[in-house]
TrEMBL record:
The keyword rRNA-binding does not apply. It comes from the Bacteria. Keywords: ATP-binding, Kinase, Magnesium, Metal-binding, Nucleotide-binding, Pyruvate, Transferase. Substrate binds at residues 560, 616, 752, 773-776. Its EC number is 2.7.9.1. Mg(2+) binds at residues 752, 776. This is Pyruvate, phosphate dikinase. Its cofactor is Mg(2+). SUPFAM superfamilies: Glutathione synthetase ATP-binding domain-like, Phosphoenolpyruvate/pyruvate domain, Phosphohistidine domain. It catalyses: pyruvate + phosphate + ATP = phosphoenolpyruvate + AMP + diphosphate + H(+). Gene3D superfamilies: 1.20.80.30, ATP-grasp fold, A domain, ATP-grasp fold, B domain, Phosphoenolpyruvate-binding domains, Phosphohistidine domain, Pyruvate Phosphate Dikinase, domain 2.
């Protein structure tokens, strides 16, 4: 080795902590050796050697080969065998990355067998057939993996030989057959490569180690790493071990097992084995393995030892283990142990059981579950056994799976969904006009719009699956069809959405129902004991509020009153209010709306009795409430051309005039939020009256009401909040006076514009609380449109790794997170006890919750179905 770098470790030198250098497999093998568990002897070439080789374009670092030879010599001495010698040492050469990448990288077994050693090996085992079997396996593996010969070149010959012999199983081939096969394989290699395979086992060893190094950087390995967020510069280790043989006869076997059932988490024996076989036979599915329990009869001693070892390993690692083993002539060896992959349901059950068994503390158990696993269990999911491929993929906008018939407009969805048919609403994008269709649909699929698009926000709020921004779909409005690649779907055809992954399937898949069970409750309750952050919900209806409370919300952090306006019985009145040209018209519209609002608030306050509810005053991007300019123009034109009903034409023209007047190029930066309320203070005044009347009515009826917090949206200037606060306070005072009642009401503001974050100290003078609107803060802080960016450059930015993730999904720590920090510091500088919440979509994102915990905010608020995840993530953030 170079003076500074050690590339080689004998198995006995390592331990489980050396994962970075030895890879997961190498570190765990070394650890098992330390624990006195039988593993084959060997050595590990470190990840550092792989990295150095990759960096040098495949050239091994100086001294590495000499080190390998030295390690090999020591191994030969310890085992009393020699590579290529009379008592032959056979080796396995296996990859072992730091993070497991199942099946992605290469392995070579039986290295060291050849013309000179096959007889000796057969004689030693008193089983020539086994030796020739190992030989032909080696030739195929080396040819494929190291030399790149296509697998079928060998497989075809094997199939032909079995056909000639009239046998089905490889195990039915006799020694002579295998000898013949070896000759054939040598010829195949010569034919395919134009030369012989190397025959010196040392050359083969060098080739095998190089092949494993190279397999780190294949396109498929890179794709896998990208998909799983594994860095490209970790490298893989190479484990070189003495072969143990599961194919030495009927007292030999190979198998895999889990210490618990990885589907259910149940504490039971789970695994399979094959007598007289090597590991690849199990993987390749050539022979059907037997349930592990049957091993007790065939190989009782090895079985007893295996069961004990499984127990020991689980106790040592304090987690469910996934184990590979081989029995050679009745002697058990472990080839690998690792923490077992498991379903979400199993993850919770295992974590909970390990606490009950006294193995883990509750805090440790919380660290064994991933937030995404809770999420999976909260929603119906596609049966994991489906084995089908998606036809396209969009953004995973709202989790859960939905199956239904394609419909293209909300009215059809409402009619058919209302009649109990399962429908999936497919739209270019949704608007508030579609809400009645969304409500009855199983799920929503849009071609355009991102994680905070209307469809996404509304669907998440309802716990309804949604795939948004699926730019690969074409909706053909003329013939009412949907085209995805080469598939075309007519209205009524079945599709399946997976809102947790963004995948869309062109057929009906089986779903499994949500699984909120006792394990789930236990884990989330433990999280409550640990977390510091409060968790509230974003909810706009009594029903959502009740759901949120059931899922553990400690209040409402954001009630978007504009969503209440979207119901079809209100939209006309709301339009009338927005479009009113005179004060009288507006007053009349408000008059109609007030009782409706009051009714809504009563439902919410009733559901949230005793808990705080933040009601946000109207924040309408006007375009969401008005007819589309282009559509309205077309309507007028059509009426003109067809000599339609003159009255209808007049109305349409008038509406077009108003739409033109209010049209904004950039409605998200237009007359939104408090800006509308600044122009028409009668709107916040009406809303405040409705809030107070509702609170008093609920208290009267229920004996208790919710804590009333009124929030002003999209504030940039302290003067805006001062003015709005005055309007609100006046209305509160008048209502309370006329009712002869008292009620605590606080008034606060959203911090969702960069200017507000910068002047937070000024704004705080007029605020009882802040709530960070990280959706708009992302939009305005980075300067990217919530509605358009995700279909466009943003996805390219993410896939090209210009930025690490979509900032609407998970907060941009440095930039937008910096604005939140600034706002929090400014607010607290002015008012040390200022309550600080977050109500953007990031309030339900585990990584963002980590940042909010660091910043010491008071609570997060998220959609009801994310509440358990937020409770859990808030606990993880302090652990
Ligand atoms: C926000 O901007 O983060 C927010 C919560 O408000 P909305 O999404 O309604 O604009
Ligand atoms: Mg906002």
């Amino acid at each position: 080795a170079g003076e500074t770098q050690t590339y080689l470790y004998d198995m006995s030198e390592g331990n489980a902590q050396m994962r970075g250098l030895l890879g997961g497999k190498g570190a765990n093998l070394a650890q098992m050796k330390r624990l006195g568990i039988p593993v084959p002897d060997g050595f590990t070439v470190s990840t550092a050697a792989c990295i150095a080789t990759t960096e040098a374009g495949g050239e091994w670092p100086e001294g590495l080969w000499e080190d390998v030879l030295a390690s090999l010599a020591r191994l030969e001495e310890r085992t009393g065998r020699t590579l290529g010698g009379e008592r032959p040492l056979l080796l396995s050469v296996r990859s072992g990355a730091v993070v497991s990448m199942p099946g992605m990288m290469d392995t070579i077994l039986n290295l060291g067998i050849g013309e000179d050693t096959v007889e000796a090996l057969g004689a030693e085992a008193d089983n020539p057939r086994f030796a020739w079997d190992s030989y032909r396996r080696f030739l195929q593996m080396y040819g494929e993996v190291v030399e790149g010969v296509a697998p079928h070149a060998y497989e075809d010959e094997l199939t032909a030989l079995k056909a000639r012999r009239g046998v089905e199983q490889d195990t039915d081939l006799r020694t002579e057959d295998l000898q013949e096969l070896v000759q054939t394989y040598l010829e195949v290699s010569r034919r395919e490569l134009g030369r012989d395979l190397p025959t010196d086992p040392r050359d083969q060893l060098r080739g095998a180690i190089s092949a494993v190094f190279n397999s780190w950087d294949t396109p498929r390995a890179r794709v896998y790493r990208r998909a799983n967020g594994i860095p490209d510069d970790l490298g893989t280790a190479v484990n070189v071990m003495q072969m143990v043989f599961g194919n030495r006869g009927d007292t030999s076997a190979t198998g895999v097992c889990f210490t618990r059932n990885p589907s259910t988490g149940a504490k039971e024996l789970y695994g399979e084995f094959l007598v007289n076989a090597q590991g690849e036979d199990v993987v390749a599915g050539i022979r059907t393995p037997k349930p592990l329990g049957e091993m007790e009869e065939v190989l009782p001693e090895a079985y007893a030892q295996l069961v004990q070892t499984m127990h020991d390993l689980e106790a040592h690692y304090k987690d469910m283990q996934d184990i590979e083993f081989t029995v050679e002539d009745g002697t058990l060896y472990l080839l690998q142990t690792r923490n077992g992959k498991r379903t979400a349901a199993a993850a919770l059950r295992v974590a909970r059981d390990l606490v009950e068994e006294g193995v883990l503390t509750r805090e440790e158990a919380l660290q064994r579950v991933e937030p995404g696993q809770l999420d999976q269990l909260l929603h119906p999911a596609i049966d994991p056994e489906h084995g089908r491929s998606p036809v396209t993929k969009g953004l995973p906008a709202s989790p859960g799976a939905a199956v239904g018939e394609v419909v293209f407009d909300a009215d059809t969805a409402a009619a058919r969904g209302g009649a109990g048919e399962p429908v999936v609403l497919v739209r270019y994008e949704t608007t508030p006009d579609d809400i009645h269709g969304v409500i009855v649909a199983q799920g929503v699929l849009t071609a355009h719009g991102g994680m905070t698009s209307h469809a996404a926000v509304v669907a998440r709020g309802m716990g309804k699956p949604c795939v948004a921004g699926a730019s690969g779909i074409r909706i053909n409005t003329a013939d009412r069809t949907l085209t995805i690649g080469e598939h075309t779907f007519a209205e009524g055809d079945l599709i399946t959405l997976d809102g947790s992954t963004g995948e869309v399937y062109g057929e009906a898949l089986e779903l499994v129902p949500p699984q909120i069970n006792e394990d789930f409750e236990a884990i989330v309750t433990w999280a409550d004991e640990v977390r510091r952050l409060g968790v509230r919900a974003n909810a706009d209806t009594g029903e959502d509020a009740a759901k949120a409370r059931e899922l553990g919300a400690e209040g409402i952090g954001l009630c978007r009153t504009e969503h209440m306006f979207m119901a079809s019985d209100r939209l006309p009145a709301v339009r009338q209010m927005i479009l009113a040209e005179t004060e009288e018209d507006r007053a009349a519209a408000l008059e109609t709306i007030l009782p409706m609002q009051q009714e809504d608030f009563e439902a919410i306050f009733t559901a949230m009795r005793g808990l705080p509810v933040t009601v946000r005053l109207l924040d309408p991007p006007l375009h969401e409430f008005l007819p589309d300019l282009v559509e309205q123009s077309l309507l007028v034109q059509r009426l003109e051309l067809t000599d339609g009903d003159p009255a209808e034409l007049t109305t349409a023209r008038a509406l077009l005039g108003q739409v033109k007047r209010l049209h904004e190029q950039n409605p998200m930066l237009g007359t939104r939020g408090c800006r509308l309320a600044m122009l028409y203070p009668e709107i916040p005044e009406m809303q405040t009256r409705a809030i107070i009347r509702a609170a008093l009515a609920v208290r009267e009826r229920e004996g208790e009401t919710a804590g009333v917090e009124i929030m002003v949206p999209l504030v940039a200037y302290a003067s805006e909040l001062r003015a709005q606060r005055a309007v609100v306070e006046r209305a509160v005072a008048e209502e309370l006076e006329s009712a002869g009642a008292e009620l605590d009401v606080t008034v606060g503001t959203m911090i969702e514009l960069p200017r507000a974050a910068v002047v937070a100290d000024q704004i705080a003078q007029h605020a009882d609380f802040f709530s960070f609107g990280t959706n708009d803060l992302t939009q305005t802080g980075i300067g990217i449109s919530r509605d358009d960016a995700e279909g466009g450059f943003l996805s390219a930015y993410v896939s090209e790794e210009v930025i690490p993730h979509n900032p609407f999904e998970s907060i941009d720590r440095d930039g937008v997170g910096g604005l939140v920090r600034l706002g929090a510091e400014g607010g607290r500088a002015a008012k040390p006890d200022l309550k600080l919440g977050v109500c953007g979509e990031h309030g339900g994102d585990p990584a963002s919750i980590g940042l909010f915990e660091e910043l010491g905010l008071s609570y997060v608020s998220c959609s009801p179905y994310r509440v358990p995840i937020a409770r859990f993530a808030a606990a993880r953030a302090v652990l």
